[in-house]
Structures are given as C-alpha cells and as structure tokens.
Putative carbohydrate-selective porin OprB
Amino acid sequence: MAGLAGSRRKHRRLSPAPPASVPPASRLRRLAACMPLLGGLAAAPAWAQTPPLGGEFQIAPFNAPALPSPRRLGQGLSWSGHLDSEAVAVTAGGLRRQAASDALLQLGGSLDTGKAGLWPAGKLDFSLMGLATQGNLPAQTGAVQTTSNDWAANFLRVYQLSYRQDLGPGFVRAGIMDVNYYFATVGLAGQLLNASFGPVPTLTGNADIATFPTPGLGLMGGAALGDGYAAQAGVWQANPPSFSHVASSGALTLLEGSKGVGTMADGQPRQLFKLGLWHMRQNDPLLGPSTGGVYAIAETRWNVQAGPRYGAFLQLGASDGEADPVPRYLGLGLRVERPFAGRPQDSLSLGLARASLRGQAHAETVLELGYAYKLAEGLYLQPDVQRIWHAAGDGPAATVLTLRAHIEY
C-alpha cells in the first residue's frame, strides 16, 4: 500500500465567536473545523515501510482521510473506498446539548505503471471525497481540539491526484495531496477520533495547511538512509484549496527524519521515532504571519504471549510564532488490539491531548476512550467518549459521546 491515509481551507464560521479572552477566532476556527484526524493512519512512503502499513497495527476503522487496503483489478489498477457516518452529542456540561452528525464517502485507487506495462517504479494515486454535516459540532463545547476528525463544512472534491516515482532507495512525489498522508503521522493514534491525534495542533492550529478537508499542491521526496534511518522533505502551497497564484501566495516547508528500532513479527518496527521541522511563509499579511515550529513523535509496540497486542505513542509540538494561538502541545495514548480472547478483530484506544493556548491560564485538555467493534467483514461500529476540561482555555468542562459506523468497500 503506497500510502493513502490520513487537509485545509478557510471555512464558513461553524460556531459563534468565542469570548474576547480566547485567541484569534480565525486561527481557532482553522483548528476546530479543519483538523484531521487523521489523522494518524497515514501510511509512510513505500521505501519507508517494512511491510506497508496494511499490517496488524493499521486496523479499522480507518479515519476519514484514509483509504482502506486496495482491491486489485488487474493491469496494475486497484481501488478501495469507505463510508463513515457518526452522531455526536454532549451528555454533560458543554455549551449546547444539541446533537450533530456527519457522513463521509471516499472512493479512490492507484495505477502501478510497472504492472500496467508502462514504465517501472511509478504509481499514480487518486481519490474523490465528499462530506455532508448536520448541526454545529464546534458550538457544542467551544473546544479548540475538535471532537471529530471527520468534521468540516460540506464539500465534494478531488482529494488526491499525485504521482510517485521510486528512484533506488529514494522517491519523489508531486500533485494534489494531504500533508498528513506523509508528515507528522501517528499510526497508533489512528483509532482515536479527536482531531489532535492527527497532525499536532501547533501545526494545524497556527498555519492554514493542506490537510483534511482541503488538500493542496505539493512536491516532496525522501530516501532510506540505512540502519532504520530515513529522511524526507516537502513543500506545499499555503492557504489551500485555491490553485491560483500558488507560487506567489506563500508555502509550507517540512523536513522530517525517522528512526525504526527492532522488528515485530509482521515486519513493522518495534519502536519508531520521528522529528520534524516546519515553516509557513505567508506573502500576504492579511492571511496571517509567517511562523514555524517543531514536532516529535515516538511509538512503541509489544505483544503479550497468546494475549493482546499493545502499542503506545507520544506526540510533542512547539511553535515559535509570537502570535500563534497554540504554542505547545502534548499528546499520548495506548492502543490494545484483541483485548478479549473472543474478539480478535476488536481494539481499544485511550488518548490524552493537552493544548496550551496563548493568553489563557489553563491548557485545554481532552481524555478519550474508544472501542472498535467488528460487526462483519468490512463493517465496524465504534462508540467513543471524550471528556474536555477548560475548553478554549476558560470554557466549561464537557462530556461528549460519539457513535461512528464504518463501512469498507
């Protein structure tokens, strides 16, 4: 699996303006309405996978921006898709008790140029995504860290159209794509629904980047360096999704190094460490100041004899912009696969996300617990509960329940 997984535009306001003590609304809105989630299920480029992330630790339900493992059609062509539908409601505290819901459909695939008899080591990835929402999810709690990584304004668009060419131990890729498919991904956080467990909020909350729900034009490349080390760099347009004046509007630049240690039975690294740097250059000051930051990710996995499989992760993020609304972030979590002997395809995830907010005495903190229950082949049901403290820094605590259904094609 070459790596469709785990995008961003300025949306219409989804909630009333926050109190004056909260950081600037335009920045918070980008985080609360647009952060993925993804995130977290983004597959690494093929050169960095041993084997691809279709293995035991990339389990359903896949998050919104991620395509399931492809089905081969022949002649190098493959396809896959998924439908996610969820209902979200505040059951205690919060600002509003009204429910919100969404439904997301994604269809896509890839063309392997070598298997198609064209030229070797090339792959074209493509997908179409649509989202329909009802209610006002951000207004339920007023939290900066939105409770669903599927939530955004309604849209229908080409989500991925990119080409990758492998060159020995390295690769280059260009086209329309999601930054979080390839950078700042946390595989073990993929089942958690809060958007903070995708790309770190110090990146998505402080810069308008090409990630869910709006990808953008990008160019990237990387290489395996041996002994478990790898490095990659990329540049994406600023302020997607418009493709006009891309070269003159600014750019997001990223650099990420990684190190894998040990090997699991399925070939994946037992420990994986990532360190990334990013910088957003804004040419138009009306769209925000230029800024940058750093993030670090650590994942570890282990098995219990004839019992569950465990994985734990840690996320750290910091931003250097003096006006950035989210200067620091800490995320950590645990995933337990086959938690019960009679449910080998189920999994349980626990996560804690803590975002420091500029000008606020309290950090916004989210504790999440979710359980993925396999009903049938390709059909999953996931109940999820989140507890939020100090929403937007000074808001009331809230308990949020979510029920998500996931269907794979």
